[in-house]
Amino acid sequence: MAQALARHGVTQIFGQSLPSALILAAPHYGIRQVGYRTENGGAAMADAYARISGQVPVVTAQNGPAATLLVPGLAEAMKASIPMVAIVQDVHRKFTDRNAFQEMDHFALFSGVSKWVRRVADVDRIDDYVDMAFTAAASGRGGPAVLMVPVDVLDERPELSPDAPRRQADLGRFPLDRMGADPARVAEAAALLAGAERPVVIAGGGVHASGAVAELGALQEMGLPVATTVMGKGAVAETHPLSLGVVGYFMAPGSRSSHHRALIEEADVVLLIGNRTNQNGTDSWQLYPRNARFIHIDIDGGEIGRSYEALRLKGDAKLTLSALTEALAGQDRGTIDARRPDLEARIAEGRRAHEAEVDTLIDWDASPIRPERLMRDLDQVMPDTAIAVADASYASIWIANGLTARRAGQRFLTPRGLAGLGWGLPFAIGAKAARPDAPVICLTGDGGFGHVWGELETARRMQLPVVVIVLNNQILGYQKHAELSLFGDHTDVVHFTAVDHAAIARAVGCEGVRVERPEDFLPALEEAMGKQSVTVIDVVTEERAHPPITSFQGKDALDY
């Protein structure tokens, strides 16, 4: 099994020493174990590793409670279309259905959070099943595949003839099988775009998964304005004169893209690329224009037309965008070219209006500190080679709205499949494992960080230095503010007692810095980025601060 994993390019397994036989064999094939503290954190590490490396990762766990803890991570990956292979130790084959220790129905457990679940019962077929798992994970729309391995199978020796044919394929990169859309529909889409008066492109995470950044950039250079979803952030440089930034449910005053909203709402043709048209990305399906024509590129035909009837371009984003750009080059683009100067001027004016507006909304020197101040400072010093990672909830919005993608392909990792709390730190560890030379900076709230404190020790032990910024406002911010917005009141448990997260970091041998004044954050950040150690910067932040979520706009209850 270790040899089969190595054949698929696996160099790291996210595991907690089970299945032990596999973990012990793995180093002999150049595979090291990244030993997580909790299985849900391990699955999140594998997820981020896949997003950054383009390699199908492997996470392992024991049957029973450990397997159940994989479910949240697999569910996030399933919804976000991220490939991974989970290898789960199962009970001895002779003990099946006898209430063996920690036995349960793992097929039922994993059926809703994975593309494929199988049990290998014959040691002679390990290569076959490993290949099937990688194929399932990496082909078509990516997602998790689960391979159950009874513990006794790993104690057997396959009886293979020395001259028997052996599998040689490397199936560990994704997308595994690229296919382009129907050429006739590509030509139709090109004609539709060329004839449009107000076309716009909205790119999702599928652009990154496909490695289609260059192809999207070529399309943008032909004069099409490009917006992104949160997962699509970084697909184009946000400094480009035709970039609209992130669009979705946080476009109220203070949002970088708030002054570009009309460009979306007025569009007559909308090109969607690797975009699930989900609730947050569409501002509860209120943002995208009702009377526009839609063109939708997606590897999953089931996503095309789910919410917006569209010209169907089912295929890999990289191949299909390349074909679309070539087809558009053969069209008369007079309308697009004529519009471009005024369009660029309008986008530039929107950016200037945002800068002026935000200065009227934010007290940059306030204490407790405004998260916007932290993002502004981070944006000034973060190189475009760095990977910015966010936990779910407000942290994802602060990253998406507050940082600038200065080059196409820059990565901003956010858990947007299911958006569960506790992904930030494990995501950062997985990203660092995938790209050790890149600075990795994680933003998390105190609520999300509380799920995964223990993984600080993992980062230190595995020598994966990351910088963790904790927004310490002693509340579950999104929960409290949403309840106030909806009900004018909030539940009791949105409040936490005071926690010194810097002290927690120091207790496990990491660096820990407490920041209570806004002017102290940037020096602490620069010092942390200059070190090769795990650092937690615990920042006392204003609890009333919330991102520019459109549904919060005008709610007096939030002015408490």
Shape by Cα distribution: globular
Q: Please tally the helical runs, counting DSSP H or I stretches of 4 or more residues.
A: 20
Please report which band the strand proportion falls in: under 5%, 5-15%, 15-25%, 25-35%, 35-45% or over 45%: 15-25%
Q: Strand pairing plus helix content: what structural class? A: alpha/beta
Strand count, sense and closure of the main sheet? Answer: 6 strands, parallel
Rg, rounded, reads 24 Å
- Strand order across the largest sheet: 2-1-3-4-6-5
Spans of at least 5 consecutive residues whose pLDDT stays below 50 are none
Would you report the number of β strands? 18
Overall pLDDT confidence? 97
How far the N terminus sits from the C terminus, by CA atoms, comes to 59 Å
Helix content: 25-40%
Strand and helix layout:
Layout: H1 2-7, E1 12-14, H2 20-25, E2 32-34, H3 39-53, E3 58-61, H4 65-80, E4 84-90, H5 106-110, E5 116-119, H6 126-138, E6 144-150, H7 183-195, E7 199-203, H8 206-210, H9 213-221, E8 226-228, E9 243-246, H10 261-265, E10 269-273, E11 293-298, E12 310-314, H11 317-329, H12 334-361, H13 371-381, E13 387-390, H14 394-402, E14 412-413, H15 424-434, E15 440-445, H16 446-449, H17 455-461, E16 467-472, H18 477-487, H19 501-507, E17 511-515, H20 521-529, E18 535-540
Parallel strand pairs: 1-2, 1-3, 3-4, 4-6, 5-6, 7-8, 7-10, 8-9, 10-11, 11-12, 13-14, 13-15, 15-16, 16-18, 17-18
Helix pairs in contact: 3-4, 3-15, 7-11, 9-11, 13-20
